[in-house]
Amino acid sequence: MSSRRSRGIPRITDEQIIELVSKLQQLLPELRNRRSNKASASKVLQETCNYVRSLHKEVDDLSDRLSRLLSTIDDDSPQASIIRSLIN
Amino acid sequence: MQETIMHNSRELKKEFIKKWVQGLHICCSSKKQMNLLERKNKIKLSADIALASAKNSTTCWSKAIISKAEKDEQNMILVNNLSGSGSKFMCAHQKVSCHKRITSKKILKKSYGFRKKMKKMEPCDHGSNLATCIAKRLVKKRTQVLKRLVPGGEFMDEFSVIKEALDYILSLRVQVDVMKNLVNATTILN
């Protein structure tokens, strides 16, 4: 890295990176059950990417289902108002 | 620490639901007929903008989503209603600093690329250093992928992108939860 970069910006310590990676590991469904010192950083990052992709896909699928469901409900019908009150 | 995360998730959920319902009213309550794909995109867009604005400009990824949405004029009504006028100033500022970052990154990259070539030609030491080399390269590769997945990731350094990914995952989970509940409720009603 050029010297311009390290001036003024505090160096990121290895401990900070390890802490972040372990926090990520806690979130991931795949790796949560294993003991924390077993998973390497690259494995955690790989699982993170997979997890984000699967969450994106879920949002996409749910939007699709909602679109189909909501299109069948007329805006003024009693069902629409029930849904609105449920959400609020 | 877990309790703080749970508490923040609950707060985020409330804010998200509030903003998303607003957004849905804006996009989907018009009487005109929309085809399924249009409606789905509107639902998804309003959910993403609602999630981002519920963070109230506290994270980079949320600001990135909003500034990306603002680029399309069709979304301006939605964005303005959900995020309020305060974020407009933030986004203009973000755009300038992002642009500066992009240009300076380009300059850095040009010099970095040359140095990378030099580095690759250097042989790695034997033994454990080789494993560390490979591990470091793998981490770098994965972080590059993560940068593409997290909104605004291309502008962040590796440490920030991992930090943002943490928050992004938690928020995405909230979004999925709320959407699932709505789908279930609507399915039952039908």
Strand tally of chain A is 0
Q: Using the CA coordinates, give the radius of gyration of chain B.
A: 21 Å
Number of helices of chain A: 4
Q: How many helices of chain B in DSSP terms?
A: 7
- Principal-axis shape of chain A equals elongated
* Largest interface in this structure: A-B, 45 and 48 residues
Strand content of chain B: under 5%
Distance between the termini of chain B: 41 Å
Low-confidence stretches of chain A at least 5 residues in length (pLDDT < 50)? 1-7
- Described by the principal axes of the CA atoms, the overall outline of chain B is globular
Distance between the termini of chain A: 51 Å
- The helix content of chain A is 55-70%
Largest sheet properties of chain A: none
Topology as H/E string of chain A? Answer: HHHH
- Helix fraction of chain B, binned, reads over 70%
Largest sheet of chain B: none
By oligomeric state, this entry counts as: heterodimer
Order of helices and strands of chain B: HHHHHHH
Count the strands of chain B?
0
The low-pLDDT segments of chain B are 85-96
Describe this structure in words.
The complex is a heterodimer of chains A (88) and B (190). With 88 residues, chain A is mainly α. Chain A is built from 4 helices and no strands. The radius of gyration of chain A is 22 Å and the shape is elongated. Chain B has 7 helices and no strands. The longest helix of chain B is centred in the middle third of the chain and has 36 residues. Chains A and B meet through helix 2, helix 3 and helix 4 of A and helix 1, helix 2, helix 6 and helix 7 of B.
